[in-house]
Amino acid sequence: MIKNDTAQVLLIQDIAGYGKISLGVMIPIMSHMGFNLYNLPTAVVSNTLDYGLFEILETTDYMKKTLRVWEKLGFSFDAICTGMIFSEEQVRLVAEYCRQEREKGTHIFVDPVMGDDGKLYNGVSAATVGYMRQICSVADIIMPNYTEAAFLADMYQDREQVSRREATEIVDALRALGARSVIVTSVMMDGQSCVYGYDDEKKEYFTLPFDCVPVQFPGTGDIFSAMLVGGVLKGVGLQETTRVTMDTVRSLILRNQENVDKYKGIPIEKYLDEITDFKR
Length: 280
Prior knowledge:
The two termini are 13 Å apart. Helices cover 39% and strands 21% of the residues. The chain has one domain (8-275): Ribokinase (UDP-N-acetylmuramoyl-L-alanine:D-glutamate ligase). It is of the alpha/beta class. Helix 1 packs parallel to helix 7 (220-233) and helix 3 (88-103) packs parallel to helix 4.
């Protein structure tokens, strides 16, 4: 079990000029939890993509130069958490960096953001999926949604539901890549929405059912990632951390479901004392 309440954590994610997503969500949550944070933006995004009009500036050259500067300065990390990556070149860069850092003992957490609702996002190619597998291969924990998990496992089927056997085959394929623990979110398994995964520490599969809330906010996946990584780093068991995180995200959605502008995400700063209750 990992236990490092003041870990040096590197977040590799995009940052938005407007909207509570990505680094704009993860930094306040994990800072409040007491971690020492570094961030490496993969892109600067004008606003959440839900508005339908946006501008994206990729930062690949900046990322390369920053990593070289940090190496010269002797910066090191206890954990790295990756999220949205915007090009094949960036995926290659991050995959190689995570591999090198893993050899030094750094814990790697991967949210392989590539698609949802049965399809890959625009600009995500088969090659990108292949490089993302390389990042997953050195991960302690990966957190794909069902669409991403199925594409990574090369087992995608064009239907909404899977059986427990099929879900287990997908999880096993991701473990075969090298990922230790796997959390697949938003699985419709045998007619029930659930999170399904494998806990490497306990050497067991687990199912955590939930009831869907018919409201969508951008950034809830980033809240999930930040809380889960934070809980694990504080020494809380994976399944307990996942359950608490699921319940908290659901509560936040319900409490904000009447917000007029849902595209800007959940105003996370209002809830920091509530969502970070991982005390050991």
